[in-house]
Amino acid sequence: MIKKILIANRGEIACRIIRTAKALGISTVAVYSDADANSQHVKQADEAVYLGGSAASESYLRGDLILEHAKRLNVDAIHPGYGFLSENAAFSQACQEKGVAFIGPGPEAIRAMGSKSAAKAIMEKAGVPLVPGYHGDEQSPAFLHEQARKMSYPVLLKAAAGGGGKGMRQVHKDEDFLAALEAAKREAMASFSDNHMLIEKYLTQPRHVEIQVFCDNHGNGVYLFERDCSVQRRHQKIIEEAPAPGMFDTLRKQMGEAALKAAKAINYSGAGTVEFLLDSDGRFYFMEMNTRLQVEHPVTEMITSEDLVAWQIQVADNQRLPKSQDELSFNGHAFEARIYAEDPDNEFLPATGVLNYVKIPQGDGIRVDTGVVSQDEVSIYYDPMIAKLIAHGENREQALLKLIKALNDYHIVGVTSNIDYLLRVASSDAFTQAQLTTDFVERHADALKKPELASDLESLSMLAYASLVCERAEQNDENTSQARSANTPFSKFAGFRLNHRLEPSCHIELEGETHVLSCLLSDENASRHNQRVFSFAHAQAEKAAEDSSEQRVRISELSNPELSESTDSFQHLKCRIQVDLKQYHLDIIRKGQSLHLFTSDKHLIAKIPDKDLGEDSEAHGAGEIAAPMNGTVVDILVKSGDKVSKGDAIAIVEAMKMEHSLKAPFDGTVGECFFQAGERVDGGATLLIVEADE
Ligand code: ADP
C-alpha cells in the first residue's frame, strides 16, 4: 500500500502530484535545490529535503541522493513527474532494486523507447506504421547525407536521445545538410550528451495527434483517447486540445489500438503517450512513445473526468486499472495553453526574473496548474514554463471562448510572457476553424505577429491617466502616510487645479516613440457623484488646432483608484473608469518606469520616460549586438570588416540549452568583435558592433 510518495521534480508538476496525493490521503515529500528553497512545491508538501546546487545535475538529476532520502524517510514510491529522471531507465531500475516503487514503467520499457531510433525498430517489428526514414547505426556525415538525398528533401534531422524539440533541424536543400547536421549534433550533445542522429522524411503539413495509453501489471491496457498538439513553436507544443477536431470513431479506434499495440510490444506499465503524425488523408505514422505523464495530460483529464495521477499511483501499487475500455468515455472539449516566460516577438527567447505580480483567472471549467505565485522567480536553471491554463467547455466553440477570456484575465508583470501571443493564436481565424497543422505557427506568422501598436488616442489616454494616478499615489505615500490607510489615496487630489491644464504634460513612451499628452481635469458632475473627469489630447495636435475640432478623450472615474500593493519600485492600483461610453475595470501596475495596464481585453505596456534622463540614455546604441541572456558563444559567424545585410545571422549564442542566432539589425559593416566561440557571456554584454552603411 502506498502511503508516502517522494516527488522527484519541481514546479507545476510537483504541485499537481501533491494535489492528488493529498486527495488520496497519501503524504508527500518534496525535494529542492538552492534556487527552489522557497518554491511552492516545497511549501505544499508535508516534508521537504534539500538536494544541492541549482543546476539540475547537482539536484533534480541526483538519482542516488534522491533514493537515499526516500529510504531514510520511509517513502513507498517515487513520482518522477516529467523531464529530469522520468525517462531514466537506470533510475527506475535503482528504485526497483532498493524496494521503492517507481511511479512509471520498468527500466526495460524506458530503455526500449529511450532512443527514437531503437523505438522505431521495435515498432517496425510490431507492425506499427512509421514515418519513412533512416534510423540505423551508421553515423558518418557522408553516409547520412547520402540517406537524406535518397529520401529527397525536405528531411528532418532528429537526435535519437531527443526531447523537447532539441537537436532537431529541418533541411530543405542539399547544400544546407552538413551545416544543419553539425548544429543538430552540437545541440544534442549539449542537451543529452549523445549526438546519435536519425533522419525522417519531413512531412510538410501533418497534424500531431497523440494517444494516451495506460497499462497495469495484470495484462490490462486501455487508451484514453487522443490529444491534438499540432500548434507548436520550434517543435514544442503551445496549445493542445482534446478531442482532436475532425476525429471520427473508426480512426480513433485504429489509432488507439495501434498505440496499445506499441505499449504491449514493450510490456508497458503505467501512463504512456504514443505520438503520431496524422496526414491530411487520414494516414498516421508512429513518431515516438513517451514513457511518462505528459505536460498536456490535463486536457485528457478534463474530457474524461479521470485523475491520471491517481491512476498512476494505483498501477504502481499493483492494482488493476480503474476502468476498462468500454467503461471509458469523454465529454465536451478541452484546451491547454502553456504560459511561458519568453518573448514571442523576439524568436521566443526565454525570459527570466521575478514575477512581481500574477493574477490567475478563475471560472467554471477553468483550471490552472502552476508552481509559482507573485514574487516567485523564474530562474535561468529550469524550463521557463510559468503555468498551464486549461479550459473545458461543452464543445470546442465554448471551450475556446472560455480559453480566450481566461487568457485575457491572466495578468503577469515582471517577466515577459507569451500570453498576448497565445491570445493571438487562440483568436485567429485559422485556429477558430481548427486548421491545425504542425506548421501552424510559421504558416500563420503574419496573422500572429504583434499588431501595430495601439498608439490610438484612447489607449494613450488610458496610459496617461494610469501614469497620473500612480504618480499621485506615490506622492500621497510619501507626504501623508496616514492618508494611505484610507482606500482612496487621492481623495483630495490636492495638486490638481480644476479646469486647468496640468503641468507638466504626461509623457508616454510606446515602443520607443514618446507621446506628449496634455490633460485637463474638470469638475463636471463632481458635486453629484464625486467624480473626476479627465480630458486628454495630444499636445502637438492641440497646439496645431486650438479650436473645438481638437480630438480629445474623456476619462471619468467611476470609482476612486484603490491601492492594493505598493513598494519602492512597485505599485498596483485598481479602479473603474468610463471612456466615452465604455466602462472598464482597470488594473494598473507600475514597476519602476514601466507601466502595465490591464482591462478585460487590453494589455498595454508603456514606459514613463524619466524626465531627468537625457534622450541618449539608451544602454545600447543601434549597432551594438548584445547577448540576449547569460550563455555561451557558440560561434561568431563574421569578422571585423565583413559586409552584412539586414537579417544575416552574425553570431550564435547558446542559452538554456537552446541555440539562438543573432541577426544584423541593418545593412552594414562589422566593427570590433569582443567575444570568441566558447566564451561565456553575460546577458546584455556587447558581442560585436555593426556599423550602418551610409
Ligand atoms: P521531441 O521528442 O523533441 O519532442 P518529436 O519526435 O516528438 O520530438 O517531434 C516533435 C515535433 O516535431 C512533432 O510534434 C512534429 O510537429 C514535428 N515532427 C517530428 N517528426 C516530423 C516529421 N517527420 N515530419 C514533420 N514534422 C515532424
Structure description:
The protein is an alpha+beta fold and 694 residues long. The protein folds into five domains: 4-103, Rossmann fold; 132-201, Dna Ligase, domain 1 (2-Layer Sandwich); 207-448, D-amino Acid Aminotransferase, Chain A, domain 1; 457-480 and 489-613, 2-Layer Sandwich (Glycoprotein, Type 4 Pilin); 624-692, OB fold (Dihydrolipoamide Acetyltransferase, E2P), CATH 2.40.50.100. 27% of the residues lie in helices and 31% in strands. The protein contains 20 helices and 40 strands. Helix 3 runs parallel beside helix 4, helix 4 packs antiparallel against helix 5 and helix 12 runs antiparallel to helix 13 (419-427). It starts with a strand and ends with a strand. Mean pLDDT is 89; it is low at 482-498 and 612-621. The structure holds adenosine-5'-diphosphate. Adenosine-5'-diphosphate is lined by residues 131, 156, 158, 162-165, 168, 200-203, 206, 208, 232, 235, 275, 277, 287-288, 438.
Number of H/I helices: 20
> N- to C-terminal separation?
76 Å
Would you give the CATH topology of the largest domain? D-amino Acid Aminotransferase, Chain A, domain 1
Dominant shape: globular
Residue stretches low in confidence (pLDDT < 50, at least 5 long) are: 482-498, 612-621
Summarize the structure.
The protein has 694 residues and is α+β, with helices and mostly antiparallel strands. It is built from 20 helices and 40 strands.
